[in-house]
Amino acid sequence: MLKRIFLLFLVVNVLSACSLGAQQTKTEKEYKIGILLSDSGLGDESFNDSAFRGLERARDEFGILFDYKEAPDGDFEEKLTELVEEEYDLIIGLGFSVKEALEKVAKEHPNQQFMIIDEVSELENVVSLTFKEYEGSFLVGMVAAMKSTTGKIGFIGGFDVPVINHFKAGYIQGAKYVNPNVEVLVEYANSFGDATLGGAIAEKQIAAGADFIYPAAGFTGFGALQTAQKLGKLAAGVDSDQFFVAEKAVTTSMLKNIDVAMYDIAKELKETGKIGSSTYVLGLSENGVGLADIRVVQLSDAENSQLEEAKEKIISGDITVEME
């Protein structure tokens, strides 16, 4: 009898140990994400910082491990290769400028999963994630036209490239939706990292009559916002809520919710062990873009209604915002 009890006890313990071992094996898998930040690097108060916040949240909430690389000298391929060698489950290239290098490294490592933000790749091991910047910028253009007293507003682009022109196109369409006669001054800085240059361009546009400035130019836009404040004009931030950059000028910001996207991607990786789709396109209906709170100025009830109505029409498809 004692022998039977002992054998039963032994079997139960063996089964429990197997079950516990299986649980431990399952929970011991730690997913790792490596990200190569865009040109302006961490501390840009915009796109890079927002992506970093999303991954920090994923780390804190469900234990995703992540690290980042910067390539201020443009050595994207070298940094991406370092991430491959460090054996990350997913390697993310942030920004359109990294596409060529990322695709080259991806071809050399076909079993490694990559993701590119703000560009589209046809490679099987590269997931593409883009935003409908033009939809959010349409709403910014509406606010600009509503509050402009000169009928002239400004746009400053980092580079004359498709993703930046999405911001410009939506901004112009939104402004003309409110005031068909509005004039939009456009200039490209050819830099995402020169705040002094951004300020100089903003000053030139203001001297030409613009009383609302919208930069889509990374850290270059930082200087544009501060110059708008210094000269008593209005502005809109981009990517993140940039109100604190110039609290007397920034009426709102076009939120490009890269933080939400990074969090959701990390969560999908944690829950399923892979990224299920090859392409993600995030607009107003997906909470990929939107507007920060309206500050500095007050919109009338009629203006608020018009803004909300336009947002709903964009989501429903009654208003089509063109990318170019």
Automatic annotation (TrEMBL):
Which intervals hold domain ABC transporter substrate-binding protein PnrA-like?
Answer: 36-321
Membrane-topology descriptor: Lipid-anchor
Q: Does the keyword Nucleotidyltransferase apply?
A: no
- The lineage's top-level taxon is Bacteria
What the entry lists under InterPro entries is as follows:
BMP_lipoprotein, Peripla_BP_I, PnrA-like
**Localization per Swiss-Prot or TrEMBL:** Cell membrane
Q: Which residues form the signal peptide?
A: 1-22
Q: What family does this belong to?
A: Belongs to the BMP lipoprotein family.
Q: Which PANTHER family match?
A: ABC TRANSPORTER GUANOSINE-BINDING PROTEIN NUPN (PTHR34296:SF2), TRANSCRIPTIONAL ACTIVATOR PROTEIN MED (PTHR34296)
Name the record gives this protein: BMP family protein
